[in-house]
Amino acid sequence: MGQQPPQPEWPLYEIFVRGKRGLNHVHVGSLHAADDEMAVRHARDVYTRRNEGVSIWAVRADLIVASSPDEKDPLFDPAGDKVYRHPTFYDIPDNVPHM
After folding, report:
1. Are strands 53-60 and 26-32 parallel, antiparallel or unpaired?
2. Is 4 within a domain?
3. Contact 18, 26 (CB under 8 A)
4. 20 to 30 A Cα–Cα from 83, which one of 1, 20, 49, 66?
5. Residue 49 belongs to some domain of the structure
6. What is the Cα–Cα distance from 12 to 9, expressed in whole angstroms?
7. pLDDT confidence of residue 30
8. Per residue in 53-80, pLDDT tens?
9. Which residue range forms the structural domain that includes residue 42?
């Protein structure tokens, strides 16, 4: 009997669930699935066993675009050279409350 050729691995999905009391989807884990429909079904079975979810997002991990932690300083820099973004640039009238 000959050796079987290696089978391709199912793609990795990142799973997000929105709870009954939540307004946002929260990342709950990852799983492998053959297709999008299977990913949602498996996510339901694995991550919402107690009927706590109202919505599931299954996103193929290879389609997620993310910034690199190594680039955090230039990406999240508050742009200190743009003075108009600082509140000291504006004159606030005396009749404007809560400023």
Report:
1. unpaired
2. no
3. yes
4. 66
5. yes
6. 9
7. 97
8. 899 999 999 999 988 888 777 776 766 5
9. 12-89
